[in-house]
Amino acid sequence: MLYIKCPHCGLRPQTEFSYGGDATVKRPELNKEVSDQDWDNFVYLRKSPRGKHLELWQHISGCRQWIKVERDTLTHEIFTTLKANENI
Amino acid sequence: MSENFRLNKGGLINRNKKISFTFNGKKYFGYEGDTLASALLANGVHLVGRSFKYHRPRGFFGAGVDEPYAIVQMNRNNEVDPNVRATEQELFEGLEAKSVNCWPNVNFDIGAINNFLNKFFPAGFYYKTFMWPKSFWYKIYEPIIRKAAGFGAASIKHDKERYEHKYEYCDLLIAGSGPSGLASAYAAAKNGAKIILAEDKSRYGGSLLTSEVTIGNQSGQEWAEQIISELKSMPNVIVKNRSQVFGYYDHNMLVMSERVSDHLPKTDKYTPKQRLWYIRAKEVVISSGSIERPLVFGNNDTPGVMLSSAAKEYLKVYGVLVGKKPIIFTNNDSGYEAAIEFKKNGIDSIVLDTRKDANSEIIKQAKELNINIRFSYVVVAAKGYKKVNSADIAKISDDKKNISNIENIKCDCICVSGFWTPTIHLASQSGNKTKFNEEIDAFVPSHSKQKETTLGSANGIFTLEETLKTSFEKGSELSKKITNKENKVSIPTVAEKKSSKHDKFWCVPLPRGKKYKRFLDFQNDVAVSDIQLALREGYRSIEHVKRYTTLGMATDQGKTSNLNGLQLVSEVENKVVPQVGHTTFRPPYTPVSIGAIVGREVGKYSKPTRKSPMHYWHKKNNAVFVDAGVWLRPRYYKQGNENLFEASKREAKNVRQNVGVCDVTTLGKIDIKGTDSAEFLNRVYTNAWLKLPVGKARYGVMLREDGIVMDDGTTTRISENHYHMTTTTAQAANVLSHLEYYLQLVWPELNVNVVSSTEQWAGAAIAGPKSRDVLQKLFPNLDVSNEGLPFMGYMEGNLFGVNAKIFRISFSGELAYEVNVESDHGNFMWEKIMEIGKEFNIQPYGTEALSTLRIEMGHVAGSELDGRTIPYDNSLDGLVSKKKDFIGKRSLSKKAYIESDRQKVVGVVPLDKKTSIPEGSYIVKDAKAKLPNPKLGHVSASCWSVEYDNPFSLAIIKDGKNMIGQKLFAMSPLKNKIIPVEIVSSHYVDPKGERVRS
Q1: What's the CATH code, domain B899-997?
Q2: What are B350's strand-pairing partners?
Q3: pTM as predicted
Q4: pLDDT tens for residues B581-609?
Q5: Is B169 at the interface with chain A, CB within 8 A?
Q6: What's the fold here for domain B14-125?
Q7: How many CB atoms lie within 10 A of CB B730?
Q8: Which of B181, B258, B800, B937 has the smallest set of CB atoms within 10 Å of its CB?
Q9: What is the assigned CATH class of domain B294-418+499-517?
Q10: Is B997 helix (H, G, I), strand (E, B) or coil?
Q11: Cα distance between residue B789 and residue B809, in whole Å
């Protein structure tokens, strides 16, 4: 079970969090023309890297903040955790 | 029966307490402190089971966790406990155990015929035999094989024992209380670190209990006792025996299984049988020791053949002789320790040492004791069926390839020692890349991936002096890093005998013309010939060889078999062991009972149960409850002998004719505040929200980005920057996370806050033509007329001193209101509504009537918003704004979503107006079409329309828009029904929606 350092609460077990997928995906801006391809990429296409992955987790059983976690998908090593508004 | 193999003195058992027990129905006795294994051996019982595949007789091979044979079935407190190792089960008064894998009994086992048919059971026999005809596999072969194989039978009854879970955090977790565990724990404890020291046996000390060593001026055992009692007195130390750390998981999370009362006859209700500990440790010390390796020779699985360390342990700990005429077969000095121990107790043994010659302190001692030692000698084969009665022994050539001078000598046990294998399971599970140590012919931990350190013989260090030194140092070093404190502990002096080098020999060649089975894996009956066959057949990877032959796959996880298997593969393949590599060690290290894994989360405790504040009123009034997510909701209120159908019909009818009240507390509620709330709602919902006036509610639908409907509900503008959102019961948590996602990550510039207020409000929906009369009496000072409180209106009121929120919204399609009060006043509100509503014939209605009402109105709910439909499918086109952007809008222009024959929700009525249509039925054009019959869609929800008194269903079907008026069929292969139906509008009752506005 992972041990995730919530930037707001500190180290907490994985069971307090829920997973939110790739943190680098940017939602296209509202009211802007988006091509079918770009929209499909945003909605469906995700990389599945072996190694470092910046991903979203929500501390649902804690502060309810969405956070960013840089994790190795192979070893589960967590390199860093960030608040929603912070970037690597 | 008297104990013929118990010494008159010695051992750590309590000779003052005799204990009686039964094995295979026969009564025996032993002493407090015995294991089932030691007590049986004391009684001369060596035959305990039959082997997995060939049903060969099985005895005892080890004395602890490594035991591959002695697996028994326990009967404890009338509960069956299969797969128990007799070597670990402590004796208690009245213990009942029996053999497994034999029928009709262990002495006469019909399955033993497999032994004589063994040429039909080669490696991979499952894959080779029984292949034809195919149907025979399922009907005949498999059931017979399943019956013949296995280690005991699990109970089919509910396990009434109690199991618990515990979570613990510590600085150092130390797995194993042998010399390395004790020394590291002691040093770390002195530095103030928070420590958990776990020992899987009942006695602490590990090898110190059986080895002849001196630490300081104490014997090894005395020293261990003293350290343990000191550790126990320290507040920063938890010391646990009967506790097996069996799994090493990510981020230094380890799981330990504590056998709390497995060793006790009967415990009170609240004492758990076992406890599972989830331990998050800053540092882990693996001091799991090592397990003696077997030597491989003919019939080396015969009862009476066992590890020499086990023989020594039975002697020193339990005062039990495993035999009175032992042969010690060894390739190293360890075997001599058993020989000397036998000698001290008046038993003469013969030591067969595979080495040409060896000299060390212990060999000298053996010689001085006149122990018969034969160098360059091996056991070729054990003789005897249910018990060893003699052995063929022979001289072995210097190159270990040829044997000569075979002779048969009488014996009653053969104690083998093929040197030691470090127990690296936990280290390997942690991700440690192990390395092969040529010096000891075994793998040892190498580079740590997590915060673990392996010490002592688990790390391949076999001298006590070095073990203690490194363990004291490591314990101090690791804890100092955490506590920043250092209390120097002086390392005691050690007196131990120096050993000479072991012989790399491990397998005795077969004599010419003999075909003895030489076993590698004792639990899964994998012999040398099986591995050789697998390699001949082309299996190369050790992982494949393992799976094909089942080497190391049994419940003992190959604790005694792995390395010899690797030796053989590397020999045949002309490789060295590290090239072959070892198979992956996976948790659990020892079998863990399912009960321990499940813990207390059984039955109704498997998930939390949420109850509304009115729950006990419902209960008192004969409500029959249904699970709605984690909530319990009244499904219907039973009157007299009514069934579900009758009751729900009565309740729904009363709503249509008079007035009903429904507990809607479970609806998700989210409080939304902030200056950008309107803008936020406008982005979240598909319809327009900017112009919603204060004091008004609006129905909204929200999508996921892929255009699929996520949820629906009403949101009310309480004041300028304050909204009250409702969600469906099931989606409440997901919707909150969804809103938080957009507010925190996508549009952090919006000034909006959201918080769940589901539990803060109790809700009652008052529905029916007479609902306004009830409301007026509840709030006599308010103008609740159609003008004062119009459809989708909101006002606040005072309900006999309680603040209330009144929403004119309707799920039933009738004139209806929802009244919310703070949860604590929920029951008060409910009773007031019932009291005042009495004169208007008010009745409570449950979820079944609620469904009926919404289905015949064509209001979509969870069964239509099923995660596969878009707004158009649900006839919610009018709610999709063309002007503004919102979450998921871009997806709605996808080609597949705008096709003209897209699926749509419709109403379905059986032509006979009698036959109810099962939910999930397919709608098809031609009931007699060839299979697979193309389906147009499925029936999503069914009810008995109380308005028209006939069945009515909703269905989502292809081109639904143009299907209205068509005569089709509803097919339910599950219920074996084909029902002719007519497709009608989904708005079956009051299609213009006049009642809600009346």
Answers
A1: 2.40.30.110
A2: B327, B372
A3: 0.89
A4: 888 888 999 999 999 999 999 888 888 99
A5: no
A6: Ubiquitin-like (UB roll) (3.10.20)
A7: 18
A8: B800
A9: alpha beta
A10: helix
A11: 11
